[in-house]
Design goal:
With 334 residues, the chain is an alpha/beta fold. Helix 4 runs parallel beside helix 5 and helix 5 crosses helix 6. The protein starts with 5 loop residues before the first strand and ends in a 26-residue tail after the last helix. The structure holds 3,4-dihydroxybenzoic acid (DHB). 3,4-dihydroxybenzoic acid binds next to loops.
Length: 334
């Protein structure tokens, strides 16, 4: 029998698919729906110590290759969110699907405050979101931008709770492995990689930005190669589990994410844009079927295969592209 279960920071998921934060995590009902639809674990929407209204509309746009969003962290604040998490936990317990709370803050103390608050609902894990690209905060830059700040936020959250903490990293850094090492040394029990990457869309007719916030986070298929590279580098740098998130919409995408070293796999935009809650059962089926056809009994056999590989292989469905020479162009000699 194919075994799709994984253990992340001591918590067992029946399969490696995790509902990513911010997608359906706004209500207990939607978290339950994702669990019933086949998610191995579900992540709530990020909350902050105080309530936030979020940005004006338009906050999200489907541009054909995924989403660009700048919600602006709308949430009812950590106390109100804790009541929602407690209700979510009550609904998820009979299903055996773990609940991941998500917290953010604009100060180190705020991470401790939010971690302490959500812990009262006893989620299975807490995701410490140090990488939201959409809010200008008093800290001046996201905590995920430097090893020192990332470690401070991690230490603050860990010091305020006994629940294992995953730290969510940003791809928008020069050396994501250095950030991963810093949060692991600060006590992180796992890493979620990656958050969205800041981008922009502009309306050609008016010349104006499409989103009210002007910029937003890129998610979905456009992000997959970036996420694979980041998970590859992070999993080589640290010994804690990684939830690989970014552009996963199929069983093969999930296999690729496991191959670069992920222990579990986040699914977000595929649920929000294309497949709805059908995404979970479909991806699980594709993953299980692929393994069965190859006699692979456990995900451990897939995990980290890319770290062993040398050189390139031709991948069905992709094309090697050689650009035609540009007439008259000479390499710059400097
Ligand atoms: C939002 C976006 C993110 O990528 C994130 O990690 C948290 C919040 C948002 O705009 O609401």
């Amino acid at each position: 029998m194919t075994d799709l279960s994984v253990i992340v920071a001591g918590v067992r998921f029946a399969n490696p698919l995790v509902l990513a934060s911010g997608i359906w995590g706004t209500t207990p009902e939607l978290l339950e729906r994702a669990a019933r639809a086949g998610a191995g674990a579900v992540t709530a929407k990020t909350c902050t110590p105080a309530p936030r209204a979020g940005h004006r509309n338009p906050t999200a746009v489907d541009w054909g290759h995924g989403l660009l969003n700048a919600m602006g962290l709308p949430n009812p604040g950590a106390d109100e969110e804790t009541a929602l998490l407690a209700e979510a936990r009550r609904r998820l317990a009979p299903l055996g699907v773990p609940l991941i709370a998500s917290i953010a803050a604009d100060s180190v103390d705020g991470f401790a405050e939010a971690a302490a608050a959500v812990s009262r609902a006893r989620p299975d894990l807490i995701e410490v979101n140090i990488s939201c690209p959409n809010v200008a905060d008093s800290h001046g830059e996201m905590f995920a931008a430097s090893p020192r700040a990332a470690a401070q936020a991690t230490r603050a959250a860990k010091g305020a709770t006994a629940i294992p903490c995953l730290v969510k990293l940003s791809p928008q850094v020069y050396d994501i492995a250095a950030i991963a090492r810093a949060v692991a040394e600060a006590g992180a029990d796992g890493i979620t990689a990656i958050n969205t990457l800041a981008g922009m869309l502009v309306d050609a007719e008016t010349g104006l930005p499409v989103l009210a916030n002007r910029t937003g986070g890129i998610s979905g298929p456009a992000l997959k190669p970036l996420a694979l590279r980041c998970v590859y580098e992070v999993s080589a740098a640290v010994g804690i589990p990684v939830i690989g998130t970014g552009g996963v919409a199929s069983g093969l995408d999930a296999i690729e994410m496991l191959s670069v070293g992920a222990t579990a796999v986040g699914v977000g935009t595929a649920v929000a844009v294309s497949s709805g809650d059908g995404a979970f059962a479909r991806i699980v089926d594709e993953l299980g079927g692929w393994m069965l056809a190859r006699g692979i009994e456990h995900l451990d056999e897939l995990r980290g295969r890319a770290h062993r590989a040398r050189g390139g292989t031709a991948v069905p469905g992709t094309r090697e592209t050689r650009l035609p020479p540009v007439p008259g162009w000479r390499p710059h000699e400097g």
